[in-house]
Amino acid sequence: MNKFFSIVMFSTIVAIAGCGKKSDCTTSNCLNGGTCVDGKCECPIGFTGDCSQEKVPTSMTISKFVCTKFPGKNNGVLWDNLSGGKAPDIYITFSKNGASSNLLKTNYYSDADTAKYYGFQTTAPITVASPTEQHDIFMFDDDTPNGEEIMDFVSFIPYQAGKKFPTQYTIISESKAISIDVYCTYTW
Ligand SMILES: [Ca+2]
Ligand SMILES: [Ca+2]
């Protein structure tokens, strides 16, 4: 028998054996709400295999960021200490690490109060084309017409692997001075 026929014969035997094979699943072993159909788990979008494995999103959409914590002072003094002792005028930028242009730059809130939460969003949702790559949020104190001061920044990877695709999650800066909630959806 030549090699070609050996392969055909082997494939045929495997195919016949496959027909009599018992089911790979029952509804109870398909996870995360998956159901067993014809011996195969049918999974909620984003999951595969026995529905415990996540598919990496091809893109994400961020609808808003909400800042729940920011530093009210800069080394013990008010951010606008030189201009009459005022709280900072906060805004953020969101960018892919190393990218020269921002995916988002917001307007600022004047004299921001550390006891309040501040939402940052644009008229159109932000598309994150590389959800597995590092992105950065910088927070600034606007000092127009004298530029701005960087208050702190948060680096993060938008797709948090193994977390089951939360539509809201919290990121905290390394200094722990800034805490921001991210509101997002996923596309596969
Ligand atoms: Ca300032
Ligand atoms: Ca200012």
Characterise the protein shown here.
With 188 residues, the protein is mainly beta. It has two domains: 3-54, no CATH class; 59-187, Immunoglobulin-like, CATH 2.60.40.1110. It contains one helix and 15 strands. The protein has one helix at residues 3-19, and strands at residues 35-37, 40-42, 47-48, 53-54, 59-69, 73-74, 77-78, 90-96, 104-105, 118-120, 126-128, 135-142, 148-156, 168-172, 179-187. The strands form five sheets. Strands 5, 10, 11, 14 and 15 form a five-stranded antiparallel sheet that branches. The model is unreliable at 7-22 (pLDDT under 50). Bound molecules: calcium ion (2 copies).
Detail the poorly predicted runs.
7-22
Task: Give the helix/strand class.
Answer: mainly beta
Strand content: 35-45%
Radius of gyration: 25 Å
Please report the total strand number as a whole number: 15
CATH architecture descriptor name of the largest domain: Sandwich
Topology of this structure?
Blueprint lengths: L2 H17 L15 E3 L2 E3 L4 E2 L4 E2 L4 E11 L3 E2 L2 E2 L11 E7 L7 E2 L12 E3 L5 E3 L6 E8 L5 E9 L11 E5 L6 E9 L1
Antiparallel strand pairs: 1-2, 3-4, 5-10, 5-11, 5-15, 6-7, 8-9, 8-12, 12-13, 14-15
One calcium ion (CA) binds next to loops.
In short:
The chain is mainly β. The protein contains 1 helix and 15 strands.
Describe the structure using short key phrases.
188 residues; binds calcium ion; 4-stranded antiparallel β-sheet; mainly beta; Immunoglobulin-like
